[in-house]
TrEMBL record:
TM region positions: 20-41, 62-83, 103-129
Native source organism of the sequence: Panicum virgatum (Blackwell switchgrass)
Superkingdom, taxonomy of origin: Eukaryota
Main localisation: membrane
Keyword Translocase: no
GO cellular component, one term: plasma membrane
Localisation: Cell membrane
Family of this protein: Belongs to the Casparian strip membrane proteins (CASP) family.
Name recorded for this polypeptide: CASP-like protein
InterPro entries: CASP/CASPL, CASP_dom, CASPL
Residues in Casparian strip membrane protein domain copies: 16-157
The keyword Membrane is annotated on this UniProt entry: yes
Membrane topology: Multi-pass membrane protein
Amino acid sequence: MGSGCDATDEAPNGSKAVTLLLRLSTMALALTSAVVMATANECSIYEPPGARVTVTFKNYPPFVYLVGFNIAATILEAVGIYLQVGMGGGGDEEEAPKVAQVLLVFFDVAVPALLNLATGAAFSAVVAYRPEISACTGTAGQFCEQVHRSKLFSLAAGISASSAAFVKDVRLPFSVWPVSSDSDDC
């Protein structure tokens, strides 16, 4: 006895909304991580013979990888958001173009891989270069803090990207935005 305008007539779109939210947070966190690391202040370390050494993130290849991989992940995630929202890649299989579906699957694998590689490299660099990075804590302070913030933002982006890839395939029983109505009876 229900009319054709009920939202219950169509499948709930909760997973689409949660996936979009996680993709947006992945993009924001990865970009924030790259910016925080790239703007890490210079730190001057005085070595025992009295030589002064200036240290930036560019002195540590894993931190350069973190910046590059996070920027690449941000770009891929932005394209993934466009495909999901703009081209219908995250929708029904009949509606979405096959290329968009294949690209979304590729991005769901590539983005977490890039972020996890960058995060792992940053965590291992902090352990490997601990004396140099710790020396910056007392003198300039900001460098060490920015390194730790950046690696945590990158870790959060990796978790968010992996969650988006998982939630995309899980049917959530709620609708967030109005479902489209193909009938003109309303």
